[in-house]
Amino acid sequence: GAADPEEDIRPRRAPRGRSYKIQEVIKVRQIMLVQVVKEERGNKGAALTTYRSLAGRYCVLMPNTARGGGISRKITSAEDRKKLKEIAAEFEVPKGMGIIIRTAGSQRTRAEIKRDYEYLLRQWQDVRDLTLKSIAPTLIYEEGSLIKRSIRDLYTKDIDEVLVEGDEGYREAKEYMRMLMPSHAKNVKLYKETVPLFSRYQVENYLAAMFNPTVQLKSGGYIVIGVTEALVAIDVNSGRSTREGSIEETALKTNLEAADEVARQLRLRDLAGLIVIDFIDMDERRNNAAVEKRMKDRLSTDRARIQIGRISAFGLMEMSRQRLRPGMIEASTAPCPHCHGTGLIRSNNSLALSILREVEEEGIRKRAAEVKVVAPVTVANFIINDKRDHLIAIEARYGLSVLIEADPTLVSPEHRVERLKTASRPAPAPMAVRAESGFAGMDDPREIEEDAMGSEAAPIVE
Q1: What gap in Å lies between CA 173 and CA 400, rounded to an integer?
Q2: In which domain, by residue range, is 248 found?
Q3: What is the CB neighbour count within 10 angstroms for residue 386?
Q4: In a designed cystine with 100, which of 60, 86, 205, 271 is the match (CB 3.0 to 4.6 A)?
Q5: Residues 237-272: tens digit of each pLDDT
Q6: ∠ at Cα 429 (424, 430), nearest 5°?
């Protein structure tokens, strides 16, 4: 596909001389036209800039960056660069503006690039007119729909047809293609079959697989993708892949196949930020070099800006990938309300002990005649069956009535401990106990190995 606009724009040099505070540059109630360069994510706010840029298929127009024009850095051929510079020099770029010819324009004709440039000029004029008529704060312009972005960034001459389901989407795609590449408008076709488009081409299966952290490889190996706040960790495993003559050959083949799949998954899931890949350890340096080369080759067509390191002595490859927009998982999922995104909940034993400690604390404070515990069904059963001795000991020690109630709607670690002024049944009279016989002396699941029947030592009660 085409390169991302951010990749084509040359990085601006750091300002020299005095550094200004933001309060000295921007005043309260000052009206500015800004562009969002990085969307809000989690607790991180959006990144804004006053250096606007409008991306077309072959050009990037920068309305207020006069010195930023040129040719995309990804175009390395001297002949192509010379030809594109001559084309760009023919354009009458207004004073104060800059234009960059994108990677996708390297093999395009003068007429195609000029048409795209004139379209961007008209687009900027519309933005400017709307800005002058609007009252801040307001949205002036946003990137085109998914259909337009897909055609702009992904369509190439190698694609025979673009199928669109739905009359409205078809008209939008047809009109945009007619404006962008008139000779290819005939390739946009309306999908008319009764079977939904995504079902017809098994797209739903691919989308469903994107939520699975494990991706199988054809050789029998697999990769596991783990997304954390700090980085994306990808682990490569050989699995059942043992067909090669030696361990080294098996590792090399699996790593090469994993490199292909990792590059594909990065684009599919739009994984970004710091990425660490744990390849299978290989002894020979040339094999590591082969895997590094394969990874670079597969990522060369990625639209995002990527930096790749070498495989370390521990078999780890570090790389960073530009965040174009929120990733697929981040945009289409929400943290589990029970485990808060950790994937773990407390065990029955652990939660039961925590509840019993709360009950004993209520007994010490003597604020209620009865304590009602509402817990998940499995935890309530565990307390009644496995911790009955502990429960009886607490009731006898503090003269407290304890009622255990199971609630099927609760999920560990959810529970409630309610204080009641009147008891629903007679409470046992408080008993004198030794100082060290409190609940703190009861068995801890981390310190005892229960036998097959789950029996535990009862607390000392006088």
Answers
A1: 73
A2: 214-332
A3: 17
A4: 60
A5: 988 766 666 888 889 999 999 999 999 999 888 898
A6: 115
